[in-house]
Amino acid sequence: MLSSPEEEVLAKACDAIYKFASKEDVVIHEFATLCLAQMAVEYTTKVQIFEQGGLEPLIRLLDSPDPDVKKNSVECIYLLVQDFQSRAAVSELNVIPPLLELLKSEYPVIQLLALQTLEVISKDRETRIILGENQGLDCLLKILETNEFNDLHVEALAVLGNCLEDVHAMQLIQQTGGLKKLLSFVGDSTVPDIQKNAAKAIAKAAYDSENRKILNEEEVETCLINLLEIDNDGVKVAASQAISAMCENLSSKRVFGLQGIPQLVELLSSNNEEVKEAAVIALANLTTASPSNSSTVAEAEGIEPLVKTLNAQRDGAVANAAAVLTNMAMQEPLRLSIQSHGAMSALAEPLRSTNSQVQSRAVLLVAALGCDADARAELRNAGGLGPLVELLHSKNKEVRRNACWAVMVCASDELTAVELCRLGALDILEEINLSTGRKNNFSEAALEKLLDNNLSQKYSQMGYLSSSNIITDGFYDYGQIKPGIKLLSLEELSMQELTDRRATIFINAKPQEDVLAVEEKPQNSSYEQTTLSPVSRKSSREKSSLLVSPVEEKQEPPGRRSSFSKSSSREKGSRKGKGKKEEEKMIDVTQVISKVQDEINQENAQWQPPPDFVLLDYINDASKTILPLTTTREQVVALAQFVADKMGGAIEKEKLHDFSWELHISEIEYELKSNVVPIGKVKKGTFYHRALLFKVIADRIGIGCSLVRGEYNRAWNEVKLVDDSPQGVTGLLLPPQEYIVDLMFEPGFLMKQGSAEADQYKRI
User: Fold this and answer.
1) Helices in 605-746 by DSSP H: which ranges?
2) Is there a contact between 73 and 111 (Cβ–Cβ < 8 Å)?
3) Would you say residue 726 lies in a domain?
4) Is residue 390 part of a domain?
5) Residue 684: which domain range?
6) What does the mean pLDDT of the chain come to?
7) Vertex 74 angle, CA 69 and 78, to 5°
8) Distance (Å, rounded) from C-alpha 581 to C-alpha 32?
9) What would the DSSP string read from start to end of 364-391?
10) Domain for residue 525, yes or no?
11) Cα–Cα distance for residue pair 764/677, rounded to 1 Å
12) Mapping DSSP to helix (H, G, I), strand (E, B) and coil, where does residue 715 land?
């Protein structure tokens, strides 16, 4: 064309060349930025672009007159700032002004990319400050106010949400009326993504206490409660999370308590596990240190869904459901209601969780509910004590501490304490208390409580029972055991073959009037005795010879039968002279009834030791003769003489070795074919038999005394008595003195603790 003779063609050719020459840079920029945008998708290339100094020219090209260059450049920058290094660098390169300028572009794709880039970089506080200084907040609010930009509202809200984390930005937007506009906009919107992002923005802002105050002033609570009603799971989750964050403000907490709790309780029944988790976290925050909100949850019928949530799929939901129930259980009526919904059974599974937060919250709930005997029984029956004991091994300090607390609470009754010991809690707690790093306030208290409610174990292990350790039926003295050695139960000991080790002395003064009533029936009603016997046959082993039928006597293996009663011989006598057929018929009937009775009771009943009617008589006699005495000193002396009298009387010190109590005990063991001996059977007892009997009767009639085990079969009782005032001095209150009670040589003689005679009494 340049060779053409026509001037017009020449002019057009020159003009085209000029235009091309002037646009060459733009074309190069377009293709260069396009290539970089494609490459910036890969992480390794992204790093190379940054290291080669690519950010600065890309930011400069945001001002390019060509929209394609702008689009490619902002897209590339957006991809680069996903990386922390690039995000930190763009603030220094003054990227905010050109990005805000791009928001005015006529091309929606450029506006969108600019907002997405701003959303990423505004996560850094420095960037947010620069954004505020460049009137970025106004720019964002204008986008929200403009309906034709509704396709940009979600992203604009996301940027605004980041900005609102700063108190300065929050104050600025409040002062300009922007916050009110924002909340109004959210309230009017019907777009779930906008509602969700708005709730997220509020949640981010609410992590700062000053921001919470500002949001509360603008009545953000109403907005969030309304969002809970939106039929979109994402919105419900975001609104619940924002409520959780706002709960830190007490005023907001009260508002949510009055208006938001029923909606949150309703969300607990959602099929969406994320919704359920967000709702229960909000309820946990709402009920923390707020009895009124806890009551509101109960009024909104929240207990049942909360107990169900203890077995939810998400760990966060389980942990926080336990937290809400723990907060509620601080009030007794609510605790009883929680318990009635089977919370202890539901906790068996969370206690087995591998998540430390779930473990910690679950054992806290056990501690909160475990102060009730029925709740402890429920946990026992649900198999929850095993995993609870296992958590004592936890390497997590908080879990271990809370587990110690729960064990301490659960060890409040003998049945649970014995079961906890059987599961190894005692050994673990002893091990914890030996470690300075793992010991905690609750571990020592738990060990003490465990032993105080398992006195047989305590006395065998520690050799000491205090005046507050009241001996009850079922107690037994096995003798001293070494730490770490498992103490067998009385049932297990009673099943052992006869050995030459010292007898286990047991206490059982239960007044079994039904048994006595049957024994007193006329001797000729043998059939009635056999069939209607109310003797507890709670396991097939427990056919106590209180009322042994002839068939039972035959079936009982040699060496197993106990002779706690003479009923068997009575029954033998009562059958004499009866015809053979009648006898056979009676045996058949007995067998059938015996079998049915066993089947009914065998599964769900517990073994019971035979009653000790002699001990019961001792206690009754002491109540009649010793209890009425006017002073404690007189009662102690009288009881000492009473015990000595029942156990072989006073013994001269020089003849102590002639007092053949061992032979007497061996004879009882042989007679019973058992190592387990009821204390009422012992008629010749030494120091440890007498001290035990003294403690048992003293506990029943209200005399405070301790029981201490010494060496070589020694044991003694310590009592505290207040001495009389010196003559002529009235109204003088003297401190109590501790005395050792002589039960052997001069029964009733009181020796001052620490005196030579007291020390001599304790030792050989």
Assistant:
1) 613-625, 632-646, 661-672, 687-701
2) no
3) yes
4) yes
5) 613-762
6) 86
7) 150
8) 116
9) HHHHHHTTSHHHHHHHHHTT-HHHHHHG
10) yes
11) 26
12) strand
pLDDT, tens digit, 9 for 90 and up, residues 215-233: 999 999 999 999 999 999 9
pLDDT tens for each residue of 528-555: 332 223 333 333 333 333 333 333 333 3
Between CA 69 and CA 29 the distance in angstroms is: 6
Residue 427 and residue 357 in one domain: yes
Of 317, 320, 414, nearest in space to 365 by CA: 320
Tokens of 509: 């003064």
* 444 and 569 housed in the same domain: no
Read off the pLDDT of residues 392-411 as tens digits, 9 standing for 90 and up: 999 999 999 999 999 999 99
| Number of folded domains that form the chain | 3
By the 10 Å C-beta count (0-12 exposed, 13-18 middle, 19+ buried), 506 is classed as buried
Q: Which of 602, 629, 664 is the last residue of a domain?
A: 602
Sheet containing strand 464-465, edge to edge, reads 464-465, 706-709, 715-721, 737-741, 750-752
What strand order describes the sheet that includes 476-477? Answer: 476-477, 504-506, 676-678
Looking at residue 352, what DSSP letter applies? G
- The Cα-based distances of 453 to 261, 445, 588, 609 in angstroms read 41, 12, 45, 19
Instruction: Answer whether residue 178 is part of any domain.
Output: no
Within 8 A by CB and 6+ apart from 409, the residues are 366, 367, 370, 371
Using CA atoms, how far residue 295 sits from 325, 330, 335, 496, in Å, is 11, 11, 11, 54
* Judgement on whether residues 587 and 626 belong to the same structural domain of the protein: no
Closest Cα to residue 72, out of 42, 102, 104? 102
d(CA 399, CA 616) in angstroms, rounded, equals 46
Tokens of residue 170, six digits: 């929050």
**Residue 696 identity (one-letter amino acid):** V
Determine contact, residues 311/349, Cβ cutoff 8 Å: yes
Which of 246, 248, 199 lies closest to 227, judged by CA? 199
Read off the pLDDT of residues 136-189 as tens digits, 9 standing for 90 and up.
888 998 998 888 898 999 899 889 888 888 888 888 888 888 888 888 888 888
Q: DSSP character for 502?
A: P
Residues 598 and 624 in one domain: no
One domain for residues 577 and 618: no
- Clarify whether residues 598 and 731 are in a common domain: no
Q: Which residue has the tokens 């908080």?
A: 398
Q: Report the share of the chain in percent with pLDDT over 70.
A: 86
Residue 676 shares a structural domain with residue 577: no
Contact partners, residue 712, CB within 8 Å, separation at least 6: 764
In a shared domain, residues 668 and 734: yes
Using the 3D structure, point to which of 580, 602, 624 is the last residue of a domain: 602
Phi, psi of 673 (to 5 degrees): 55, 40
Cα–chain-centroid distance for residue 695?
37
Report the amino acid identity of residue 277.
E
Residue 119 has a CB neighbour count (10 Å cut-off) of 21
